[in-house]
Amino acid sequence: MTMEPARNNVRGALQGLRILDLSMWWAGPRATRLLVEAGAEVIKVEAPKYPDPWRGATLFHAETKGMLDHLPPSQRVNVSPGFNLENHSKLGLTLDLSTADGREILLKLVKISDVLVENYAPRVMKNFNLEYPVIREANPDIIMISMPAFGLDGEERDYVAFGATLECMMGVSYITGYEGEGPMALSQTAYTDPIGGINAALAILMGLRHRRRTGRGTHIEMAQLEGGLPFMVPAIMDYTMNGRVWGRSGNRHPWKAPHGNYPCLGEDAWVSISVGSDAEWLGFCRIMDRPDLAEDPRFVSGKPRWEHRVELDPIIEAWTRQYDPYTVMDRLQSVGIAAGPVLNAAQIVKNPHLLARDFFREVAHPVVGAHSYSLAHPQMSETPVDIRRSAPLFAEHNDYILKTLLGMTDEEIARLKEQYVICDEYRFD
Fold first, then answer.
1. What residue numbers bound the domain in which 333 lies?
2. Residue 407 in domain
3. Given this model, what pLDDT does residue 58 score?
4. Residue 172 covered by a domain
5. Reduced to 3 states, what is the DSSP secondary structure of residue 118?
6. One domain for residues 214 and 129
7. 267-276 confidence digits (pLDDT tens)
8. For residue 309, which of 177, 185, 179 has the smallest C-alpha distance?
């Protein structure tokens, strides 16, 4: 008997909601990760020959070091940390949407689903003949969200992009880097991907609210470029109102000082500090036991402090180097100053603040073993969020979805496998 994959007993706010997830990489899967943590059922659809590329993000690099030699080739698509984080708790289905059978199966799933998520370039859903009018005909109540890089129309509609591309297009790269540096720099974080996912999740919730109020489904367009533009609002407004073009300024602030990352005791140890008012500065001087700085005309108030920030920073550094980052944070926060340690990934999973809030879950994965995974949500008291199971192995839930949800027979499924509309494992041929 084919049964629904095991889950815990947590009842989330979105229990009973079914989402078809056609998205890849980070932005779309982040949106559905937020919703699956809140209790939604998410079916992740991947093409037999072209799985989510994030499954292979670590594949070849790891192979060169022999890290995956112990695994059969078909299992090497199941080891990517990024994929396993963003797709935990989802169900995995393989389906070739370029075929008539694959398209028909997807439309059957559309009829029993609430939401469809895709982050292709606009031409892809058109090529599949699965644009919104077709989806709506199959299920008028469905909420479909499209997440193209540059929108569904306009001169740039068919351009594909990653978060790094969008950073360049919206100007973030132009202002990223230290003062006086040469070429523009990427943040190496691809901010628009997770931000796009968060925006999409909220947009889906608004679509569900709209359906509850009106009884109608909807198609939501969420261009990821537009979702990232809030990063640039201060620079855009400064140019619009004052004609100033921002340049690179490192970690310095347009008007706060001291402000930045300062070295601490220990190897590559740093703390972030931001002083936003004269009262905070007086508190800082007391903590440093430097009353002379409070009376120094260069630092007595905000404007001269900012104008003399190059002279001020070495003074701050001389003090922070005496202590570890958490000591600096605790002492400054005790007088109301924003401060926090700069943490690497290994330090984040041991961070007392996050551990106290149960931010991490240890999840056992059948291929890579047990690891700590972060929640994407704040916790909620009445409807807790959680990680219910590990990310799906490639094609893991084909039988449950095709047999239990759609009522297909073994003979029908065997034919689909023979024609490679679906598959049980990834082939490297």
1. 259-342
2. yes
3. 57
4. yes
5. strand
6. yes
7. 999 999 999 9
8. 179
| Residue type for position 356 | A
How many residues in total does the chain contain? 429
Confidence grade of residue 3 (pLDDT, cut at 50, 70, 90): very low
CA dist 364 and 371 (Å) reads: 7
Which whole number is the average pLDDT over 16-25? 94
Q: What is the mean pLDDT of the chain?
A: 87
Total domain count for the chain?
A: 2
CATH number of residue 271's parent domain: 3.30.1540.10
Helical packing angle, 27-37 and 192-214, nearest 10°: 50
What phi and psi, each to the nearest 5 degrees, are found at residue 146? -110, 135
| Beta pairing class for 115-118 and 18-21 | parallel
Point out the least confidently predicted range of 33-47, 181-195, 383-397.
181-195
* In contact, 147 and 202? CB cutoff 8 Å: no
CA distance 374 to 361: 6
- Cβ neighbours of 21 (radius 10 Å): 29
Nearest to 145 by CA among 197, 94, 71: 197
Residue 428 has what pLDDT?
61
Same domain, 283 and 383: no
Phi-psi map region of 292: left, alpha, beta (phi>0 left; psi -120 to 50 alpha):
alpha
Query: DSSP code of 403?
Result: I
CA distance 266 to 321: 8
In which residue are the tokens 């202590």 written?
A: 323
The percent of residues above 90 in pLDDT, for the chain, comes to 49
What are the start-end ranges of the E strands in 62-211?
91-94, 115-118, 143-146
| Residue 28 is assigned to a structural domain of this protein | yes
